[in-house]
Every structure is written in structure tokens, then in C-alpha cells.
Design brief:
Length: 328
């Protein structure tokens, strides 16, 4: 059985039951309404309308479509964001090449519309969702977050997105769901890196349910007020700011609710180097290098890396009682 979310009009979340829906036919013709989601949606829309518009940034636009009605978030850092050009030309996206300067070129013709996200596993509202209807019910926020890559560099990125928790609440996971797994598109015809046997594809990542529900965890659909450039994970990617960058999986096509911990790409590749938790931790070295310091893009002197990338007040409680040397 499959379900599809139709276009969602401002206040309302409208759902059509669609048996045997095909990948190419995800936009429904008829819709019906569930009262509870309607009320939730209306609250969100009112809040969005009341929120201030994002002041237009003079710097670094990519010339991509601008996202409307983006409100500012109290979760943003006050640090200066890196330039648009840095954020979009120094990328890890192995599907488009393993060198940092490759994705900007090899992802140029990547097709991100139409795009569907499949929701499956231990969840009430399983189904295939058209990306635009998936995003539409959510008020968009600018979240300026630090990103710390496991390789030792960092940057500050003005993402546009919405809390993953808001989506999860709508999808109504079953009580047995303890983890969420995310999967990137597998399409070697578009992603030349998938023909190279460096990593196992499709790329998979995952979070424990309480990590997924933490208000810092977002799904990003934009950057600097515009839709995401392909090399940064268009059309939708995860951002988990207190974890190493590799947890923030790009170009998501599948979200699966599970009762067991997912096997994640980097942990499959090198289980002694990359753990499931991957919390930024200056006290636990990578087997091949120290994690005590980092280089912010655009700077020369290395900075000290902060525990949980500086987000400890929001997330440290998730790990009380856990041995972070074992659960790295
Ligand atoms: N599908 C996919 N997602 C991915 C990666 C990848 O290779 N493939 N690289 C990860 C790593 S290691 C980092 S540091 C961040 C980089 O995100 P950015 O290029 O937007 O800065 O994306 C993460 N998400
Ligand atoms: Mo990374």
C-alpha cells in the first residue's frame, strides 16, 4: 500500500490514499483532509506569516531560486558565515567525486526535480512523497550552523530548512521505532562517483530517534536564502550540527523508521575510524589523526575543536551515561 502527499496549500496538509502509485505519478488528482494535521498546519502557517522575512543578503548569491518567507532562528550562531563560494566549492559528496573541488563540476547537471522521498518502515504514513509537497507544510528557517568535518576543517553555513522533528511528528512513527535511516539517491548514470568502488552505495546514514527529534536537527533545502546547490545535497539533505559532517547525508530519497541501528556508509567502510554516533569530540582522536583542532575555511590558524561542536547545552543530555570512547 502506498500513500501520497499532494500539493499542500498553506494552512492545510492534504493527503490522498493512492494504491499502486508509480514513481512518475506522485502528484495526486484528488485529496482529502485530516482534521488534526489541518490544525497543526494552520498553526505553522500562522507562525510563518507572523515571522519577519529574511533580509536579503547582498553577498554571494548563486543565482538559484530564492526561498520565500524564511524566518530567522534563535538556534543560529552569531559567527560570520563562510562565503557562498567557499561553501559551494569545497564539498564532500563522493557520488560526484572524492576530491573537494569535484562535486561543483560533476553535480552540475544533476536532476533534482521531479524528486520523490519514500517513507517506510515503522511509521504510520508510509508512502511516496513528492518533494515539493513534502517541504510545503513546513515553515522555513535560516539556521546558521557550524559544520565540522571529520577530516579537520570547519565552516559556518546559513542553511535554510526546518526541524526534522516537525516532519517526524506528522509521519507518526510507531512506538517500536528507535532509529531513523536516511538513504541518498542511487543513480550511477547521474552520479559518476557511484561507479568508483571507494564507498558502498547508496550512501546511508542514521540517527537514534531522540537525536532525530532534537530541535537542532534539520532537513535543509536551501543555502543563503536560495534553494540548495546540487553539490550541497539538493533537493533535501540532513544537517546535524553537533556531529561530524558525514552524518549530514545529502540528496535523500528514503527515510526508514527502524527498531535496529542502521548500518551507515562510513562505519561500513572503516568501523574502527567512523562510528555510528560521530559526535564532534576533541578528546577522542581519529585513529589516523587528532581531532583536537580544526581549520575554519578562510582562516590559517587552527582553532580548538569544541565538544559537540559547541552545541553541548542542547545535546549533551542525549549521551549521559554513555562511554563516548566506545560510542564514538
Ligand atoms: N550522500 C552523501 N552525503 C554526504 C557526503 C557524501 O559523500 N555523500 N559527504 C558527507 C561529508 S563527509 C560532509 S563533511 C558533508 C559536507 O557537506 P557540504 O559539502 O554541504 O559542506 O556532507 C556529508 N554528506
Ligand atoms: Mo566530512
Amino acid at each position: 500500500m502506498a500513500w501520497s502527499l499532494g500539493p499542500i496549500y498553506n494552512a492545510a496538509m492534504l493527503i490522498r490514499k493512492a494504491p499502486d502509485i508509480r514513481y512518475s505519478e506522485v502528484t495526486p488528482k484528488s485529496l482529502y483532509l485530516r482534521r488534526r494535521e489541518f490544525i497543526q498546519g494552520a498553526t505553522g502557517a500562522a507562525a510563518a506569516a507572523a515571522a519577519a522575512l529574511l533580509p536579503s543578503r547582498a553577498s554571494g548569491q548563486g543565482g538559484l531560486p530564492k526561498l520565500p518567507n524564511v524566518r530567522k532562528s534563535a538556534y543560529s550562531t552569531t559567527e560570520t558565515p563562510n562565503d557562498y563560494d567557499d561553501i559551494t566549492s569545497y564539498n564532500n559528496f563522493y557520488e560526484f567525486g572524492s576530491e573537494k573541488d569535484e562535486p561543483q563540476f560533476f553535480a552540475r547537471r544533476f536532476v533534482t526535480r521531479p524528486w520523490t522521498v519514500r517513507v517506510e518502515g515503522l511509521v504510520t504514513w508510509q508512502g511516496m512523497y513528492d518533494i515539493d509537497s513534502f517541504i510545503k507544510p513546513h515553515a522555513l528557517e535560516e539556521r546558521i550552523y557550524r559544520l565540522r568535518c571529520v577530516e579537520g576543517w570547519s565552516m559556518v553555513v546559513p542553511w535554510v530548512g526546518f526541524p526534522l522533528a516537525n516532519l517526524i511528528k506528522r509521519l507518526e512513527p510507531l512506538p517500536s521505532a528507535r532509529f531513523v535511516e536516511f538513504v541518498t539517491l542511487y543513480d550511477p548514470s547521474q552520479m559518476p562517483g557511484q561507479k568508483v568502488p571507494i564507498l558502498q552505495y547508496p550512501y546511508v546514514e542514521g540517527l537514534r530517534m531522540d537525536e532525530a527529534m532534537n530541535p537542532l536537527t534539520i532537513l535543509a533545502v536551501g543555502l543563503y536564502g536560495e534553494v540548495l546547490p546540487n553539490q550541497n545535497g539538493a533537493p533535501i539533505r540532513l544537517v546535524v550540527p553537533w556531529k561530524y559532517g558525514f552524518k549530514s547525508i545529502k540528496s535523500i530519497v528514503r527515510i526508514r523508521f527502524r527498531d535496529t541501528q542502521p548500518r551507515t556508509t562510513w562505519a561500513i567502510d572503516a568501523p574502527n575510524e567512523y562510528g555510528f554516533y560521530a559526535n564532534v569530540n576533541p578528546n577522542v582522536d581519529h585513529p589516523r589523526w587528532s581531532q583536537a583542532t580544526e581549520r575554519r575555511l578562510g582562516e590559517f590558524r587552527r582553532r580548538r575543536t569544541e565538544m559537540y561542536n559547541g552545541y553541548g547545552e542542547h545535546v549533551a543530555h542525549l549521551y549521559t551515561g554513555m562511554d563516548l570512547r566506545k560510542n564514538f
